[in-house]
């Protein structure tokens, strides 16, 4: 039987803090995007056209650009070589949309140039997903089996893979934004006055990844406090 303290305990504050951080980061990126989505670029280029222009300029000929449903669902898939832009980005000529499109192109450039952290992140994805899915069941089984510390530690280690993925993701995302801003600063897509606006959008987006890493760390810390070491309470 799971001890009462493991269900109702003060460490829930860590989960709540992580949730609040994630919510704040999400609200910030949404408000920032909406602010600069109202500012149309002087060159009147859509997110799709900007992405195609950047890929051509970087001599990347094996990546396709497609539109997908949703808002801020933009992504680049290195396996399929597809750069997917959300409806809010693909057909918009706003500074925000072009910034986001350029960021995803930054990932395509990373893939094209063999950027090591991107390769590492891709390799970690299946392991991290596997660890995240099984960590809590393993910990639960360990508790039910008379507090089997070995199983519990394996579960905690499995969950830590999710944090590892988040940490590897940070340099990948920040590097993609740096590449995007460098490309946009040449003036062919955004003007000199518009680039700082795109920088603010990308910075806000980057904070969501920082928030995700902090939230995952706080969850891991809670697991360690509750179940790590010799924390069995009879």
From TrEMBL:
Sorted alphabetically, which InterPro entries does this protein's record hold?
A: Zn_peptidase_2 (IPR007395)
A Pfam match: Zn_peptidase_2
Domain of life according to the entry: Bacteria
- Membrane-traversing stretches: 12-33, 122-145, 151-172, 201-225
Q: Which UniProt keywords apply?
A: Membrane, Transmembrane, Transmembrane helix
PANTHER family in alphabetical order: MEMBRANE PROTEASE YUGP-RELATED
This protein is called Neutral zinc metallopeptidase
């Amino acid at each position: 039987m799971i001890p009462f303290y493991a269900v109702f305990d003060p460490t829930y504050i860590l989960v709540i803090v992580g949730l609040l951080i994630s919510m704040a980061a999400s609200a910030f990126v949404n408000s920032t995007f909406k602010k600069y989505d109202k500012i149309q670029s002087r060159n009147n280029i859509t997110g799709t056209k900007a992405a195609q222009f950047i890929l051509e300029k970087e001599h990347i000929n094996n990546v396709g650009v497609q539109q997908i449903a949703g808002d801020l669902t933009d992504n680049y898939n290195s396996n399929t070589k597809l750069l997917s832009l959300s409806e809010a980005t693909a057909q918009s000529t706003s500074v925000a949309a072009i910034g986001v499109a350029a960021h995803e192109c930054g990932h395509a450039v990373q893939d094209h140039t063999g950027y090591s952290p991107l390769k590492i992140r891709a390799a970690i994805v299946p392991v991290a997903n596997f660890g995240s899915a099984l960590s809590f069941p393993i910990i639960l089984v360990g508790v039910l089996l008379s507090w089997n510390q070995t199983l519990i530690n394996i579960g905690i280690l499995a969950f830590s893979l999710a944090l590892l993925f988040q940490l590897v993701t940070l340099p990948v995302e920040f590097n993609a934004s740096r590449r995007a801003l460098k490309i946009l600063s040449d003036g062919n897509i955004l003007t000199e006055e518009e680039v700082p606006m795109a920088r603010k959008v990308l910075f806000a987006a980057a904070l969501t990844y920082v928030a995700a890493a902090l939230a995952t760390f706080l969850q891991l810390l809670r697991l360690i406090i509750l179940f790590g070491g010799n924390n069995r309470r009879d």
